[in-house]
Design a protein that fits this description.
Blueprint: H1 4-13, E1 20-23, H2 25-28, H3 31-39, E2 43-46
Parallel strand pairs: 1-2
Length: 91
């Protein structure tokens, strides 16, 4: 089985001109893959894992501007049965 970079090279060898690449989180966390796409001049959209973030290197986390307050989390309402189904009882 070939990896994505080899498939891109093969498509180019066939005379195809890929313009855009889309990849899942497996490739999204491989910096060499990002660089290879950029070197080929391709636009790309890559997924990242939920425990990663993507931002310019000079960005520093900070406190939001004055006057902004986070909203309280939305808690979904549970089932509201007027008459409980058979087998259920109120706690």
């Amino acid at each position: 089985m070939q990896g994505a970079p080899e498939l891109i090279n093969e498509a180019t060898a066939w005379g195809l001109e890929p313009k855009t690449a889309v990849a899942d989180g497996g490739y999204g966390q491989i910096i060499a893959f990002h660089q290879g796409l950029a070197e080929r001049g391709l636009d790309f959209v890559l997924a990242i894992r939920s425990d990663e973030s993507a931002h310019p290197g000079k960005v520093v986390p900070g406190v939001p501007p004055c006057g902004w307050t986070p909203k309280s989390p939305v808690v979904p309402a549970g089932p509201n049965f007027r008459h409980l189904p058979p087998g259920l009882r109120r706690g």
